[in-house]
Amino acid sequence: MKAKDSKWKRTDRDSTDNSGRVTYTPSYAKAPAKFSPKKVVRSFRDLEVYQRPMECSILIVAELIPILTKDKFPLVEGIRDCALSIPLRVAEAHGQRFSDFAKATATLETAMQGCNKMIVYLEQASGLASNADSVFLEDMMKRYLDMRGKMLRLLRSWQKFRQT
To answer: Does residue 4 belong to any structural domain of this protein?
Structure first.
């Protein structure tokens, strides 16, 4: 029976073979979803929780600090120091996790506190600096909030790995 002569309606699971007949392919026989294993972490530079704060710190120092300096924003040094210290603390924590695990978790928690601190600084800058781009500041706040969550998940995975 040809596909056009069929009294049954075609579904998205049906296909036609070379002879024009409609064949049914069950959903479980479809190609599985693509599997992509996680990247191997060889150093702290491979961690996303290091790469993204580094990117943000460069953007903040290059884009935001000159604007805030021109506006005579009082907390410029605090913003600069905090933005540059977060990737540094992630690198320190990654290096300490096997030698002194308690110190490594404390250092990673300090990096998470730095993310919270950066969000506060950026909110203050959005309210006090007249020339600062509000879209840029909102984007940076969102990035730091996302990074804090990723750092928390990394910390939990380190603790889980330590328990096993």
So the answer is: no
The residues, any chain, with a CB within 8 Å of residue 10's CB and separated by 6 or more, are: 3, 22
Instruction: State the CATH number of the domain containing residue 148.
Output: 1.20.1440.60
Is 40 among the domain residues?
A: no
pLDDT digits over 97-154, tens only? 889 999 999 999 999 999 999 999 999 999 988 888 999 999 999 999 999 999 999 9
- The amino acid sitting at 51 is Q
Structural domain contains residue 15: no
The separation between the first and the last C-alpha atoms of the chain, rounded to the nearest angstrom, is 60
Task: Read off the pLDDT of residues 120-136 as tens digits, 9 standing for 90 and up.
Answer: 999 999 998 888 899 99
Buried b / exposed e along 93-131 (16+ C-beta atoms within 10 A): bbebbeeeeeebbebbeebbebbebbbebbebbbeebee
Q: In the 8-state DSSP scheme, what is residue 32?
A: P
Strand-pairing partners, residue 14, are 24
- The model's pTM is 0.73
